[in-house]
Design a protein that fits this description.
This protein is an all-alpha fold. It has a single domain, classed as ABC transporter involved in vitamin B12 uptake, BtuC, CATH 1.10.3470. Helices cover 75% and strands 2% of the residues. It is built from 14 helices and two strands. The chain has a two-stranded antiparallel sheet with strand order 1-2. The longest helix has 34 residues.
């Protein structure tokens, strides 16, 4: 009993610490940038103080938007990675490794290429209809979700084979996109699509931020309600059936919800690799496999990692801002290798 009590205390302590760390990172991240500002200016902005000079306030508002976008997208990517690992019972499962992110990126690229959602002028992508991008991203992600479920239920592929098949499909999506760029696009369109796939929270405007924040809130509530069901399905379909949970229905439902969340992030920020794979593993090392704690821990870890990665991208080669997708790849790859080696493969 004492051991269980200590475990509960450790979980609650970790959630409290990571939440406080995230709250402390917000004003620090707002104060970081080429335009000089202080932590006091950041706190004044957060408290609604109008005594800040206009030029300082404008710069801080842009940074505040990046910070809020990083937190919202980190929540979405962290929790969707946890969900996919649970319903597929595979520690390597995530929207990125399953090709869902790449399929959504292909949908966004096609919408941009056709000029349906916006245009490019002077190397700047102008989005005229922000609601079109997530629709195209979700449609193409549904194709990949359908393929994954067909391979899992019809072809009866093993867990490892399923991941390999999904990775092969992600390469196919990238090949299709490269072929379209080679055959049909001009230089401006190619630059637009390439820069979009880097993954950058800086292109998220206030309208997109509101949409992503709403999706993050809905996903957080949904997965917290489903936390016990995720525990059961991760133990096996037979145990889930005997406990009154339909594993096929839950797997379909949770995968669709995850695909929608990732599509929303990819539509506005591009492909952000590794976060949805690494964040759940970091959280699991501390709080264990109980999704009652793992779901909120993954959300907080994902938000903190994405925010820190964006801060690094804005400062490491300042005044040049590196896309967060590139920074996360440099951070996520060695971190994933470390986690695998520590866990014995």
């Amino acid at each position: 009993m004492n051991r269980i009590a200590r475990l509960f205390k450790l979980r609650k302590l970790f959630l409290t610490v990571i939440l406080l760390l995230l709250l402390l990172l917000i004003p620090l991240s707002i104060s970081i940038g080429v335009y000089r500002a202080t932590l006091l200016d950041a706190f004044k902005l957060m408290l609604g103080d109008n005594s800040i000079p206009v030029e300082v306030r404008a710069a801080l508002l842009l940074r505040l938007r990046r910070v809020l976008a990083s937190i919202a997208m980190g929540i979405v990517l962290g929790v969707t990675g946890t969900c996919m690992q649970a319903v597929l019972r595979n520690p390597m499962a995530s929207p990125f490794t399953l090709g869902i992110s790449q399929a959504a990126a292909l949908g966004v690229a096609i919408a941009l290429i056709l000029g349906i959602a916006g245009s490019v002028q002077y190397r700047v992508t102008l989005i005229s209809n922000p609601y079109i991008l997530p629709i195209f991203a979700f449609i193409f992600s549904l194709l990949q979700v359908s393929l994954i479920l067909v391979l899992a239920y019809r072809a009866m592929l093993s867990e490892r084979a399923l991941i390999l098949a999904a990775i092969a499909m992600s390469f196919l999506y990238q090949a299709i996109l490269s072929l379209v760029q080679y055959l049909a696009l001009n230089e401006l369109q190619i630059a637009m699509v390439v820069f979009w796939t880097f993954g950058d929270v800086g292109r998220v405007d206030w309208t997109a931020l509101k949409m992503i924040a709403i999706v993050a809130g809905v996903l957080a509530i949904y997965y917290m309600i489903r936390s016990l069901d995720l525990d059961l399905i991760s133990l096996g379909d037979d145990i889930a059936y005997s406990s009154g949970v339909n594993p096929k229905r839950l797997r379909l439902e949770a995968t669709l919800v995850s695909a929608f969340g990732v599509s929303m992030v990819t539509a506005f920020a591009g492909v952000i690799a590794f976060l949805c794979l690494v964040a759940p593993h970091i959280a699991r090392l501390v709080v264990g496999s109980s999704h009652r704690y793992l779901v909120p821990a993954s959300m907080l870890v994902g938000a903190a990692l994405l925010l820190v990665a964006d801060d690094i991208g804005r400062t490491v080669v300042s005044p040049i801002i590196l896309p967060v997708g590139i920074v996360l790849s440099f951070i996520g790859a060695p971190l994933l290798l470390y986690l695998l080696l520590r866990g014995g493969g």
